[in-house]
Each structure stands twice: as structure tokens, then as C-alpha cells.
Amino acid sequence: KTPFTVSGKSFTAVAINTAAKAGEWIKLKLGAHASLTTKSTPHDLVTEVDKGSETMIRNLIKTHFPHHSILGEEGVAPGAEASAQALKELQDEEYLWIVDPIDGTTNYVHGFPFFSVSIALAHRGEVIVGVVYDPNRDELFVAEKGKGVYVKGKRLDVSKESKLSEALVATGFPADSKFALPVNMKGLQAVAPRARNVRVAGSAALHMAYVAAGRLSGFWEIGLNSWDIAAGALLIQEAGGQVTDTAGQPYSLAVRHVLATNGAIHEELRETLAKAQATGF
Ligand code: IPD
Ligand code: CA
Ligand code: CA
Ligand code: CA
């Protein structure tokens, strides 16, 4: 049986309140992020607000659940290797919170209002709570394993489009990976003429929330990290969609090349990427 509480405290309530508080705060700080620095590459940005948001989230989680583990983007050394290693060390913990304190930092820096806070809770490697908060639209997407996904009290379902030609889909280009960029250019080139259209709006977590909400029919990206995907993956599963890696293997925390759809277009999108040899690097 999936545990959702410990000593009467709801994991989901803490996830919601924490994402909401962090989201409000980053919105308040928008435009005031003086201290911009780069991480693994000149495209890989971080601000004091990313770090402050993560500290706030860690502190709130620790207040309620002092014995739980936390994996947060800004607590890990830059680069794919360090991220994978950090996940490996923590993925079997009884309770692991997986945190992206700002998903869409590049948008955040430029004032492009498409970014989010993403918080997931995994129980022995399985995501049981996922929250993605968009402070710009005040939309908080929340899912509990087996209980559906909601935004503003309304239950969400994935879209019904069954052909790629009728589907609006999205992708992304990781800032920190020189390998992903050329590969996913091939993916984009293959998908764009077959889909109704493609969006690249710059927050993987929010794109995935939009798949759960039926606003997009699919999303794929290669070279992501666990904190970009974990919450969004549960949102989509709970909305009746499908999440795998780009090769079609079932979602797990270790997935970095993600394919997330309404289910109906999954195979067509997977095959399109496979034919273009754009499933990974
Ligand atoms: C990034 C965003 C972006 C995606 C990158 C991610 P960050 O996360 O999700 O949309 O294309 O791959 O790294 O660094 O802004 O948290
Ligand atoms: Ca980042
Ligand atoms: Ca991210
Ligand atoms: Ca981030």
C-alpha cells in the first residue's frame, strides 16, 4: 500500500505548501537576480534565486520530515555525471524528495514567464507525489499515485489526439549538453513536419504538466536529469498518459531521455525519433 502520511502528516500537503511558497518567492524576486553565474557551460545558468529557492524548499521539507532524504539540483555538482552519481546514491532511500527549485532558469533570467518549481517524493524509488507550480499563472499541478492529478481542484486528463499530425507537441534543448543539441536537432527536424506543430518553451516540468492537462499531446527531450522529470512523470501517468524513455522503456528515476505523451501518439512519436536516430547520445 502506498504511504501518503507519516504520524498524521501529509506528504502531499507539504509538497503543495512548499512549492507554493518557493514559487511565490521566486516570482517576487523576478528581475532582481543580480548574481548570475554559469555552471557546466556558458549556456548553463544559475542565480542566487535558484539557490535561495532550493534552500527554502530543503528547510521546509526538513522541518516536517527530518529523516527524509533530499536530492536538489543546486545541491549537486554541475554536469550529467555528478547528477547521475547523486541519484544513484539516493534512489533506494525509503523517502527521497527530488527538487528542481526553478525549472526554466534561462527563462527566469530573461523574464520570459514560463518557469516552474518541481517537487516529487519517491518511496523506495517510486514517485508517489508530484507537484509542479507555475507562479506566473498561479497553477499548481498536483498528483498522488493512484489518485489522479488536479489543478485548482479540477481533475486532469490527457488529450485525445491519436495522430501525430493532429498533435501539438513540445521538446527542449538542454543548456548543459553539447551532445544533446545536435541529436535533438535531428529529432526536431523529423517530428516538426509530421506533428501539427512543436513548441520549445523552456521548462521541462511545465511542458510535462501541460501534457497531463491535455494542452500538449506529447513532450520529449534528451539529456535531462531526475529533478526535471520526476514530478511531471507522475502528473502524466495520473492523467492517463504514458511516460517512457525515448527507446520506449518504462519510466524510472534514472531516465534522462524522456518521451511523455497522451499514450495515443506514443508509438508514432517514438518511432519518428528512432528513425531519425534521435533517441539519445
Ligand atoms: C532546464 C529546463 C529546460 C530544458 C533543460 C533543463 P533548468 O532546467 O527544463 O527546459 O531544456 O534541459 O535543464 O536548468 O532551468 O532547471
Ligand atoms: Ca539548471
Ligand atoms: Ca530543470
Ligand atoms: Ca533548475
UniProtKB/TrEMBL annotation:
Listed cofactors: Mg(2+)
- Molecular function per GO: inositol monophosphate 1-phosphatase activity; metal ion binding
Annotated residues for binding of Mg(2+) = E73, D100, I102, D103, D228
**Key words of the record:** Cytoplasm, Hydrolase, Magnesium, Metal-binding
> What's an example GO BP annotation here?
signal transduction
E.C. numbers: 3.1.3.25
Q: Tell me where on the tree of life, at the top rank, the source sits.
A: Bacteria
InterPro entries the UniProt entry points to: IMPase, Inositol_monoP_metal-BS, Inositol_monophosphatase-like, Inositol_monophosphatase_CS, Inositol_monophosphatase_SuhB
Reactions catalysed: a myo-inositol phosphate + H2O = myo-inositol + phosphate
Q: Name one GO cellular component term.
A: cytoplasm
Q: Hey, what's the signal peptide range on this chain?
A: none
User: One Pfam family from the UniProt entry?
Assistant: Inositol_P
Where does it localize? Cytoplasm
**Family under the similarity heading:** Belongs to the inositol monophosphatase superfamily.
* Function statement: Might be part of the processive rRNA transcription and antitermination complex (rrnTAC). The complex forms an RNA-chaperone ring around the RNA exit tunnel of RNA polymerase (RNAP). It supports rapid transcription and antitermination of rRNA operons, cotranscriptional rRNA folding, and annealing of distal rRNA regions to allow correct ribosome biogenesis. This subunit may play a central role in organizing the structure.
Subunit structure of this entry? Homodimer. The rRNA transcription and antitermination complex (rrnTAC) consists of RNA polymerase (RNAP), NusA, NusB, NusE (rpsJ), NusG, SubB, ribosomal protein S4, DNA and precursor rRNA; S4 is more flexible than other subunits.
This one is known as Inositol-1-monophosphatase
* Annotated organism of origin: Paenibacillus hemerocallicola
